[in-house]
Amino acid sequence: MIDGLNSNSSGGVPADCLGQAVTTVPAIVENRFYVQVNPVTGRRELFCAGNGGTAPGATNILPGQPIADNVVDMKVTYGYDQDDNQSVDGFYTAAQLTDAATTVPMPDYQVKDPDRIPAETWTLMSNRFFKVLSARVCLVMRSANDNITPTAQKYRDCSGNLVTATDKRLYAAFSSVISLRGRTNGRTL
User: In a structure prediction context, what are the per-residue pLDDT tens digits for the chain, which is 189 residues long?
Assistant: First the structure.
């Protein structure tokens, strides 16, 4: 989600990833990115669904639209700060951060008087996303044309696994780590 203030959006109107105006007040822009097969082209593509173009006060998200083709896969992992030193100690998926059964480290706060902490503060402090400082986004892309290589190419996917392509296209994984504004003190990870 993005807090879309009028002062930081193009044309003075907050918009979602598809350029649709967001009419909620305050303007909170919600964009959902995912990869799926486009029923029109038959290719895996990057889609985005946003909350722009909905009635004021609506909580629904409109159907997604393709924004990039030949995207084979996407993976988002979150940089987690276990020891409160403003540095990422490891990257975890959203499923790992939300599943209490996983062994992802939990925040270890020293509280002098736990009886004086409001319940909503305890909830926030125990939420693993409270300690996320960054997001790593990885996309596996492929060439539009087939039969570019003489044999099926081997490439590393976003999890680091060696994959052998089922066609003769070019494949590459691209990733970037994005620091979450307001979570770090000037560090990039």
Answer: 444 444 444 567 788 888 888 877 777 788 899 999 999 999 999 999 988 877 766 667 888 999 999 999 999 999 998 877 888 888 999 888 877 666 665 554 444 455 555 666 556 556 778 889 999 999 999 999 999 999 999 999 999 999 999 999 999 999 999 998 777 666 555
Place of tokens 């504004």: 181
User: What is the spatial distance between Cα 171 and Cα 154, in angstroms, rounded to a whole number?
Assistant: 8
What global pTM score does this model have?
0.74
Reported as half-sphere exposure (CB side, CA atoms, 13 A), residue 135 has a value of: 10
Q: With beta carbons less than 8 A apart as the criterion, state whether 49 and 66 touch.
A: no
Listed residue (73, 186, 178) closest to 132, CA to CA: 178
Buried/exposed code over 16-55 (b: 16+ C-beta within 10 A; e: otherwise): bbbebebbbeebebbbebebeeeeeeeebbbbbbbbbebe
